[in-house]
Every structure is written in structure tokens, then in C-alpha cells.
Amino acid sequence: MISRFADLVKSLPRRSPANPFFLLRPPAAPRARAMSDLRAPEHQVAGHRASFNKLGPLVDGAGLLYKPLQAGDRGEQEAAFYEAFSSHPAIPRRIRDAFFPGFHGTRLLPTAARPGEPHPHLVLDDLLAGLEAPSVMDVKIGACTWPPASPEPYVAKCLAKDRGSTSVVLGFRVSGARVVGAGGAVWRPERPEIKALDTAGVRRVLRRYVSSVADEGADCALAPAVYGGEGGVLSQLRELKAWFEVQTLFHFYSASILLGYDANAVAAAGPGGGVRVKLVDFAHVVDGDGVIDHNFLGGLCSLIKFISDIVDETP
Amino acid sequence: MISRFADLVKSLPRRSPANPFFLLRPPAAPRARAMSDLRAPEHQVAGHRASFNKLGPLVDGAGLLYKPLQAGDRGEQEAAFYEAFSSHPAIPRRIRDAFFPGFHGTRLLPTAARPGEPHPHLVLDDLLAGLEAPSVMDVKIGACTWPPASPEPYVAKCLAKDRGSTSVVLGFRVSGARVVGAGGAVWRPERPEIKALDTAGVRRVLRRYVSSVADEGADCALAPAVYGGEGGVLSQLRELKAWFEVQTLFHFYSASILLGYDANAVAAAGPGGGVRVKLVDFAHVVDGDGVIDHNFLGGLCSLIKFISDIVDETP
């Protein structure tokens, strides 16, 4: 077994047209009935979206999501992370199953953008599968989104974004949201609105995420069911925090926590029913080298405090 | 009451020769029998040292330390912090008493450096008073040592130091140490050695801090008594952590945790005997504005993990 993640990445043959599957495990068998069943997910809230001439994630409607490998080394880094993480004996099974998308290898898929040049995709569990009316939020965790050994221009670019957003001040930033309110009305802020969020704005979005009203008001009616109670967001985040207090295997720079719940079902299912808390986006994960991920942990604790304040304020 | 720390700082009259006591409370009565009793502390491990022509902290041998106000706004900032903190009704008394130096106002003292121009000093508890053979370590907490609203040159200077030291990687850096080993032999690394510490070096210093041997070896013989047990460093740091998980009043940029114990007494007193864990250096503290200090908290959790690893490894 290759114990250090960096060594695993180094050991991988470089991707090339002749060698598109650079990973150790065989690609997953497709579950989609046909390639034509693949479609851009309706409920994506952050990252590149698939369109006629752009690569983006695709879902098969049968529980899988296909995420195109990113350009540069990022695609390989993310694939190598999933490979290392999914087989690492020191990751508690409960942590892997509860907080990370299931990984099913990689798969070459034809793309509309470049006919005749299939592109490698990560095959992952579709985290929103089975939710009838998904309310989703993507929260990028950490005051610092650049791994310490990054090249200078990348550090400068990330630092400007971290200082220009709430990352430095709050230890996290909201990267996207989609909230299903009363009568199925959907609120989905555009990227400029998301990027302009300050501390008060983040607090508003976190309240609106658990509100049943469709307008700008926030009644936080779903806070007890979604954020509170057994199996709710808070209890899941606290379980994740306990792991981050001791895990020294990986540092999750620029990763996000994806929150999801079914707006239709959550009231019926009661506290915690159907609430999902998952880590996503691992293109900048690096070796922990025996040190805890204090950057992720600090941001996670800050997010927990914001959410617990909302639960405490809700009768 | 002025509730926001920033408002308190703004409300203070500027310091001037005509108005050297800008604080709200009257200066403390001197406890030293005479000014000539004041001397530079023997056991200082970080910061400027007092000498014939340099300002530095002085102790009176009766339990008080006089810290000269720093240049620029820093001195006022630190004094304003002590003023705000020592009277803030939302600070639990146990936290203030256990983890912060007692504050006794400010006092003008003549200085050798500038005869005829007395300089204002903070009057604080001498944290090492009563220790016969003090082993001391200063650990600057936080991956980021610059408050978000700092001017660009200051950000650039701090960021270079944070990246050049272990701060970014570990969430803390050792700023100084003094360890009394067998037979009273003192190990006190010079600043260049301290500044060059990498992750492995920090681990070595943390082990050596609780070792009874005088040479470079580290037997960690005192780890159970100093780091472990009831009242030991770990249990105190965990109590501090619990407060940082909820406190949103102050962000402690560039503050340090000072560890101290009496090498002569610690074996006799048993686990936790005489072990001190205090926060110091508050020139860059800013308002928390309702957000936890995720930067300090993350670094604190990282330090806790390093120390708990040493306790776990010690039989």
C-alpha cells in the first residue's frame, strides 16, 4: 500500500489520450440505460455547469453523478484523492459512508464540446438522488483555500478571493444555494449576489435556507427539522468536527460542505429526516503529514456556531 | 458601558506627554519597595528585552510585571484590550482568572533609555512569580497573525512570517522556550534556532519542554505531570478550547499561549502541580463581531493534538 497521498499521486501515470484511465481500479460499469440518459443536474449550485459546449457534471437519474476531470493537475489530484481515501484503512467506515460521496472509479464519456474526444469523469454517488424538492447549499470551508506549497500566482489569486469574500473573516464562504419555499417556489441567488455576501448576508442565507416562505423573509420554520435534532445538520457537523480534531491524514483546502434536504419530505419525516451533509471538491487536498487540518476545523467550528445560533433563536 | 471594543479604542484620548494615562482606571499603586527593585525578568523567552538602552518588561519581585506600551497604536490597542476585557460582563470569571494575566492599570515609569521621559507601562501579574526554576514556552497561536483590516504592508510582512514559520502549516509557531533540565541546567534556544523550526523541530521542542535530561535527548519524563492529568496543560487547553468554540467577543490575532511550570516543584507536586497556561500579547486583538475566532481555535486544536500525541506516547 502507498501510505502517503503525495506518493500515490506521483506514482500515477500521467493522463494521455492513449491512457485515459490512469487509476488503479477498473472503471465502473455504466448504470445509465444509454448515454443519452445523462443530463446536467437540475440542482447544481456551484462549480462549472455542463452545457452544449462546456464540460460539467452529469447525472444518470439512477443515483450516479459523472464529474469531468478538471484541467491541469487538478483532475488527477481529485481522482487520486478519491482513490487514496476510498481504500485508506485509517478512515473510519462511518466517516467515509456518512460524509463523503461514494466513489466508483472513472469513466470515459463522449462530450458534446469535443466530439470524438471522450473525456474522463469521476463516477460518484449523486448526493441529491431521491430528493423530490432539493434545497441545497454549498459552503466552502477554511479561511485559507490555498495549499501551503502552491505556486505564488495561485496563492495571490486565492488570497484575493479569500480576503474579498467572507473566508478570512468567517472561516468559510457560501458558494451557492437553492432553496425550495412554499408552493415549490425556488430561490436561487445568482453568482454576483453570492460573491457579494458579507457576514450579515451569510447569516441571512443560512436562515433563508431553512425557511418555508418564498419571499425575502426568513421564518426559519424548518430550522428545528433541518439544522436541529438527531440526524440534523448540527449533529452531523459535530460528528464531522470530532473526526477533524484527530485526523491528520488529509488537509482539505478549498473543499466544500454540501448541505441538502428534501423540502417536500422534511416536514413529514420529522427532525433530521433526509438531511444530507457531505464533503465535496477535492482537487486541492494535500497530505496531512501528521498534523490536523486546523484550517478546515476552524471554519467548520465557525459554521457550527452560526447554525447553532439559528437553532437557539428558533422557538 | 461601551460594548464594542473598537468603540472603546476610538473613545480613548490619544496618548501624549501631557496625558500619559489615557485609560479609564487609576494607575495601580506600586508594590515595589523602590524603582530600583525593578529588573528585567530572568525567564523571558520572547519579545523585546529590557536593557540599558531598550525598553522591555520589568518585574518587581513582588508579583507584578510592568510591560512598556508598544510604539504606534499597538500600546493603546493592548491597553484598551485589557481595559475592555477586565470589565466585560460576558467573560466568564473562571476564564479571566485562569487564562489571562491580572490587569492593574497603567503606570508611568522612568526609563534608562530616555531619562526625564517616563514611559507608560501596563501593570500585569507576573505569570512566572513564585516559580523557583521556571520552564517556559511561548507559542504564538493562529495560522494567520494579521487582523483582516490591516494595511497592505503589514499584511505582506505578517504573511511572509506566517509562511516562513510553521504558522500556516501547523496553525501555531513556537516563539521562545526555556527549559530547566537535570541539575538545573538550562536549555534556551536562540532566536535564529527558534525561527528555523519546522514541524519536526516543533515536535522536538514540545518533547524537550517536558524532559528532565539536560542534553539534546528528550525522555519526556515530565509529560504526565506537566501535559497530562488534572490541571495539566492538556486539560487547561481543552477548557480554553471550549470557551473559544462559543466566544465571539474578541479575535486574538498574534496572541501567544505562555506555558510555565516549576521544574523543581513539578515532580513533587504531582500531576498538574503548578502548571500555568496563560494568554499574552494583545496588541492585535480586534472585535469578534459575533463570529468565533476560528483562526485561534484551529491553531489551539492543532497544539492540543501535538501535546496529546506526546502524552499518549509516554508510558
From TrEMBL, chains A, B:
Entry's EC annotation: 2.7.1.140, 2.7.1.151
Reactions performed catalytically: 1D-myo-inositol 1,4,5-trisphosphate + 2 ATP = 1D-myo-inositol 1,3,4,5,6-pentakisphosphate + 2 ADP + 2 H(+); 1D-myo-inositol 1,3,4,6-tetrakisphosphate + ATP = 1D-myo-inositol 1,3,4,5,6-pentakisphosphate + ADP + H(+)
UniProt record, GO biological process: inositol phosphate biosynthetic process
GO CC aspect terms: cytoplasm; nucleus
GO molecular function: ATP binding; inositol tetrakisphosphate kinase activity; inositol-1,4,5-trisphosphate 3-kinase activity
Domain of life: Eukaryota
SUPFAM superfamilies according to UniProt: SAICAR synthase-like (SSF56104)
Coiled coil spans: none
Pfam family membership, one: IPK
Keyword terms of this UniProt record: ATP-binding, Kinase, Nucleotide-binding, Transferase
PANTHER family named among the record's database cross-references: INOSITOL POLYPHOSPHATE KINASE (PTHR12400), INOSITOL POLYPHOSPHATE MULTIKINASE (PTHR12400:SF51)
Reported function: Inositol phosphate kinase with a broad substrate specificity.
Similarity comment text for this entry: Belongs to the inositol phosphokinase (IPK) family.
Protein name per UniProt: Inositol polyphosphate multikinase
Lineage: Eukaryota, Viridiplantae, Streptophyta, Embryophyta, Tracheophyta
